[in-house]
Design a protein that fits this description.
By secondary structure, this protein is an alpha/beta fold. Helix content is about 40%, strand content about 20%. It binds S-adenosylmethionine.
């Protein structure tokens, strides 16, 4: 039965738990016990419906580690490419709680390029972290790579947290969606797609599926940036490029 849940989870999200199966089984058992289902079978039936319980399970099992100015050199290159365009669109898939999207917005603002943003969209399957991204309010943990100057310029202090200023927030949009859901295409095509630290939770097959979606959401001359540990699907038509030791992919 637990295997069946992992199969559903894998097919829908691409996330593969083979290496940590025992821990995940334990977590799912606790999750279902806390919700008082009469049997594991009814729990499974409810999960299969894909409603609120499914979303709660996704929120419970996804790993959402992120922080401002993470893997900064890739972002620098992305912004350098953006500077060569009059208008540009950027998709962060996944965005987790939004730090990556706001980091890009801050970098663009610092270079006087904020006004050129056509779309700056963050998408994540976890609805709780997306709500946090929309609120734009963060605790200390998110700032260990952020300078005091940036904190002072682009954040205001509120209830012990730092909140992203309105002028940075205004063009940042966040949505809760699954990369493997058709709905992903409603956001249009992008000049730049950033997908960092999600493919590391996928197996080969899910990485292939994701790579084909990256291809489809990129404009003809679009560029894709992955995290250092992420591997693109082997059959991808995207071309690998290297600039100043930073890898990116071109459509
Ligand atoms: C470790 S975070 C990475 C966040 C950010 N890109 C970074 O590098 O700091 C990985 C995120 O991938 C999201 N994720 C996993 N599977 C997904 C899917 N199928 N569709 C959309 N987001 C997904 C998780 O919810 C999680 O927030």
């Amino acid at each position: 039965m637990l295997n069946k849940i992992l199969d559903i989870f894998y097919n829908k999200t691409g996330i593969c738990f083979t290496e940590k199966q025992d821990i995940v089984f334990q977590k799912i058992e606790n999750f279902s016990r806390n919700r008082n289902f009469s049997s594991f079978h009814t729990f499974l039936q409810e999960i299969e419906k894909g409603g609120e319980l499914w979303q709660d399970l996704v929120n419970f099992l996804t790993v959402n580690e992120t922080y401002f100015f993470r893997e900064y050199r890739q972002l620098e290159l992305l912004v350098e490419f953006a500077a060569q365009k009059n208008r540009f669109s950027i998709l962060c898939l996944p965005c987790s709680s939004g730090e990556e999207v706001y980091t890009i917005a801050i970098m663009l603002e610092k270079l006087g390029l904020y006004g050129r943003i056509d779309k700056l969209i963050g998408i994540d399957i976890n609805s709780v972290v997306v709500e946090k991204a929309i609120s734009g309010s963060y605790g200390k943990k998110s700032f260990h790579k952020t300078s005091e100057d940036i904190k002072n310029r682009f954040f205001t202090e509120k209830d012990g947290h730092l909140e992203v200023k309105k002028e940075i927030k205004s063009k940042c949009q966040f949505y809760s969606d699954n990369i493997f859901d058709e709905k992903i295409f409603k956001y249009g095509k992008f000049d730049f797609v950033l997908s960092r630290n999600m493919l590391i939770y996928f197996d080969k097959n899910s990485r292939e599926r994701a790579s084909s979606i990256f291809f489809d959401v990129l404009k003809d001359d679009g560029k894709l940036f992955l995290g250092h540990a992420d591997i693109l699907g082997g059959h991808s038509n995207l071309k690998k490029k290297l600039v100043n030791s930073v890898i990116y992919y071109e459509r």
